[in-house]
Write a structure and sequence with these properties.
HIV Type 1 Reverse Transcriptase, Chain A, domain 1; elongated; RNA-dir_DNA_polymerase; alpha+beta; Rev_trsase/Diguanyl_cyclase; 18% strand; DNA/RNA_pol_sf; 253 residues; two-stranded antiparallel sheet; single chain; Reverse transcriptase domain-containing protein
Amino acid sequence: MTSIGKIIKEIIIPHRKGNIRLNPEFFVLEDAHIQGFFLGTDYQRMYGIEIYNELLNEFGEGQFSTTLTSKQKISLLKILRKDRPAFSIVEEPLGKIRGHDIKLYLDVERPSPPMLRRPPYPASLKTRKEIEKHINELLEMDFIRKIGKNEILEITTPVIITWNDGKSRLCGDFRALNNYTKADRYPIPRIPHALDKVAKAKYITKMDCMRGFEKNGLKPDSMKILRIICHMGIYEYTRMPLGMDMHQPTSKG
């Protein structure tokens, strides 16, 4: 971007302590696609000014209802910024429930039966590309780790790719493992009882948790049970994966 000149222009910013009058220098840039203007951070700190564009950039990947007014949207953005640690994106570490690492119990003696020692499923070129994408994402999020060549292998579960609305999802085919895993019979709360608790509420908020099931950690011995296999090799889950029968009771209990 090249500066082609500057102008000095008085601006007035409404503020609860009185209007703020500034005489900043505006630099005109050639071929610059900028919405709004930059204001020095010293002024922002001094007067507690929050720039709307800055809020939008911080939560640029979010989608907001078109029914919100500009004032409502700004209020929502401020709440999101205030409680920023509660929200996660792919580039940031996903939260983990503390003190709730899950232990799996098998209903079978060693050595594990052949049904639990499976080779990878055949996969098309398209499926292999999707598997690679998801495996790399899980590695980046520290949800799985690569198994070394000298580690003892007793259980390997092949992975599959499922599709929904044009989006792919990687899942271990844990049907055989579920048959040999002791079930947790923790009762799931009844939906009518939950609805009764919010019957008099004025506002009801629904939030979609990013990888909600995978916020549960695993005991070290249970990680060895949850090993998946594909054309890229063998990997071990460090979080409770999608597809296990233990998901529902451990998440809702």
